[in-house]
Prephenate dehydratase
Amino acid sequence: MPKLAYLGPEGTFCEAALRILAPDAERLPCANVSAALDAARGGEADGAVVPLENSVEGAITVTLDELAWGEPLLISAELLLPVEFSLLVRPGIGLPQIKRVYTHPAAITQCRNYLARELPDAVVVAAPSTAAAALEVSMPGSPYDAAIGPAIAGEHYGLFELAARMGDRDDTVTRFVRVSRPGPLPEPTGADRTSLVAFLRDDHPGALLEMLSEFAVRGVNLTRIESRPTGDGIGRYFFHFDAEGHVGDARVGEALSGLRRLSDDVRFLGSYPRADRVSPQLKSGVADPDFAEAAGWLARIRTGQA
Amino acid sequence: MPKLAYLGPEGTFCEAALRILAPDAERLPCANVSAALDAARGGEADGAVVPLENSVEGAITVTLDELAWGEPLLISAELLLPVEFSLLVRPGIGLPQIKRVYTHPAAITQCRNYLARELPDAVVVAAPSTAAAALEVSMPGSPYDAAIGPAIAGEHYGLFELAARMGDRDDTVTRFVRVSRPGPLPEPTGADRTSLVAFLRDDHPGALLEMLSEFAVRGVNLTRIESRPTGDGIGRYFFHFDAEGHVGDARVGEALSGLRRLSDDVRFLGSYPRADRVSPQLKSGVADPDFAEAAGWLARIRTGQA
Amino acid sequence: MPKLAYLGPEGTFCEAALRILAPDAERLPCANVSAALDAARGGEADGAVVPLENSVEGAITVTLDELAWGEPLLISAELLLPVEFSLLVRPGIGLPQIKRVYTHPAAITQCRNYLARELPDAVVVAAPSTAAAALEVSMPGSPYDAAIGPAIAGEHYGLFELAARMGDRDDTVTRFVRVSRPGPLPEPTGADRTSLVAFLRDDHPGALLEMLSEFAVRGVNLTRIESRPTGDGIGRYFFHFDAEGHVGDARVGEALSGLRRLSDDVRFLGSYPRADRVSPQLKSGVADPDFAEAAGWLARIRTGQA
Amino acid sequence: MPKLAYLGPEGTFCEAALRILAPDAERLPCANVSAALDAARGGEADGAVVPLENSVEGAITVTLDELAWGEPLLISAELLLPVEFSLLVRPGIGLPQIKRVYTHPAAITQCRNYLARELPDAVVVAAPSTAAAALEVSMPGSPYDAAIGPAIAGEHYGLFELAARMGDRDDTVTRFVRVSRPGPLPEPTGADRTSLVAFLRDDHPGALLEMLSEFAVRGVNLTRIESRPTGDGIGRYFFHFDAEGHVGDARVGEALSGLRRLSDDVRFLGSYPRADRVSPQLKSGVADPDFAEAAGWLARIRTGQA
């Protein structure tokens, strides 16, 4: 039974993600992303589950920077988790009894319409996290009647889910990844993703265009590009890429080798099944058999065969 | 005398930036970036000064998203401000008297070495902002003996600067921009920058490569590229670009027009003098006279002249 | 009634092309392509019809070089003429009477199967041209019984067409163009072609790729590319291009301007209706209204409008 | 002692090229390029020397088409031979005695200035080839007093070289290649050239741009590009390429493999030392050690090593 660190405390969306990605794992809540990744690096845990990006907020930059700069870790799985808020109450409490609501400010913002419609007179108070809000509300004698948070927080703290999916935008999604210390990669499934980080050799105009060309020429589509500062001053960046395919695919391997030759440093962050199971639309001539045929041909012409 | 909103409270790095960008302006501190930009939009202020990116933390995403989605504003100036921390005390206090230090956690992190070396026995307590820490320390009877913050916070709250540039990385820089409602652009200076936002028409593979090609073909270098989520789900992004040159330059104008034709939407965010005064290295054939010569030639051949 | 020079003598495929392109024109046969073009340049004729390329033999290099280097001429029309051979005899002669055949060696090669099948015992003698062969055969007392040549040669010299389309490959096609001194261009028809010649500014690696990119970025497809030596030594070339569209189209005009800025010299050779009437498949954003919309937008943002 | 076919008769520039490329070879003159190549294919000769291009006339298309379509042959060497004309006379004849000159029309054109200056009153008569002219002049009782042709023709036919380098443009150069049946390639020298032919899979817009990108991305420069008709109608072409480097170089091998995957057919025409001994200027990251390092890295990350 593996032990996985995650962004705690108990009751977070991150825990919900972990429980889907690894239902049987032992869970180790950590105070922040860096601590969770350090637990995986140091062996305190066998791996970690952390958020990578959110469909509204964008990249979780602490995760990007940790994966780029810290001791190497590899992504082995990903999950797209809808960010759905529930109204959590002590058993026996109904809507009319709710006078004071406790939750994180982000949840207040995202549930504004529900609150205005269903609880127009309730006082809403800011909590440090949705999990902390649920814990507080679960205490006998709490001054708060309800918390807003993930359903999983209700489960943890013995609260009743009075309303579900109460956010204004229930299509918001957070992408979580499972990482572990370097080791054998997940097998290719035909619908995989490869993550990596590349540092430009010299930051000349057109350098990003050159990097993108390494992928494009081999027919490898990119699904995400993020620039991050190198720390060496405004205008100096490195890049996170997510590419379609598995590093074991010939086209992906050759593209990564091309990027490696072009870059000061490339850090491979893993190949793993896509959460959305979408297989890439390959242009002509870039499937593995095409590479194998061309390699055979090259070997022949190099020995002077017709 | 213009009135400029900024990210307050008094004593922030943002105020320091504003005072350099517009020494004579009346200053309107605001609670957050959105409030400062709304003050500029609504006419409460004539403009605003806000942070855009930091050389270590990266993009200030709230600023990027506000400029992309809110009522249009144009950048008219930029400033690169070193993030330098000072040790601020009530007059009469020296190092030996400092038992308790109050500051924002980011400053604690960045001044770790100084604190370990010079104040190994001091207790360091987290404050909501460096400006708030300075205000607190300035109060008679404060339990804190020193604040860490920008020098300007000391000026504001009557504190003495006992040490300057005490951060571990005093090369950290924040880029601030001055924005205002749409209106006449700053004149080209020969060392300008143009900012814009582009939304892909349809998010096909290679779309970013196509956008970069519009710049590259006209010899326009990009100095910054940021992807941001459109909010329509993981994997859907729009892009912020900073390009060398002024929209009045022929090559920049043609590149922007090309981007416009290629994109669902392009929002122009302004052309303004570069803070670093660096003029672009132009490749052959892309200066304004080259465009003028080619336009004259095109007009002639269209009428059938040799 | 215009007077057009052409590659003579009377009875050539070139005359056949001229009679289709300009049925009412007065015809001036010339000894070679250079002479025909010089007649157009010097005013002896109002224009000329010359071959540009053949679907089997390739470019007619003398035409390419004359158009690139000589006094400027503009192409105003093109024609694709099938190269079809006929068996031409004096009236009264039938297959059994044919003992000796006279024609140009190229025609012997291309009619090999017909000759082996229908005239296995005939002696075939090489003539300087198919037109000369027809003239010879038309003479009373000629030692030859039949000529092989274009049907038009039979008409000219009073011969009877005993067999038509006797070549082994009757899908061979020659492309002829009508040229004249610079003057107003043919109106755009929506299915046009533009011809031009470009000399590289400096012959650096990737120069051709850059030139092709000028077209590709504006969505202008090329239908023909020919390299020709500049005469300055092996490895120095200039390029002939045929592009889809009319120079009056915004995308074509901008691409040509881009090429002009990139090149040491660009010579425009004309925009004219395509013989095959094929309209280009335009990618999104490159039609004239797209350019007009983008130009309007650019004008607005340059004055600081939102 | 190898036996090499060449474009005869004796005394041609092609023989001169052969004698430099293979001084000890037995020589087999052939009536035309096709015959010389067929002699090499069929085993009548061990190889052939034929012209490939001329710095003024351009490609020798019969050679290009024979190498593309016929039984495969590989280029193993190249030579750049200046096209220099000599005035060849029977012993004892001086300039004043020359009344009638015999030579090929191309030589008449290229020696126009010399003839006007030195032999203004001589009659110049057209011969079928410069070698035939030399043979004729060598005959006792010939009506001609002098031939114009390559020095080698004088040697062959016992003529005296009265003047050398008499052409108006003595910088004209013809590139000859030595070809043979497929077999081991010449070793890489660091200054090599690779020739090949590529047929587009489907003739879509941008296909040539894609092919050029396969070379450009790997930093392989092209020194020659020729389009030739496929024979399937106007507008259908295939391409001859000369690239810098040897197929044994990693970057060239990978570029050719990429082209192979992209194309309907690629025919390798050989890797051989450049006549001009120019080594390529490699961009960063494309030398063999760069490829080897990247391949090692790829192997490591594929097994999940950091």
Q: What stands out?
A: The first helix of chain D runs from residue 13 to 21. Chain D has a mean pLDDT of 94. Chains D and B do not touch (no CB pair under 8 Å).
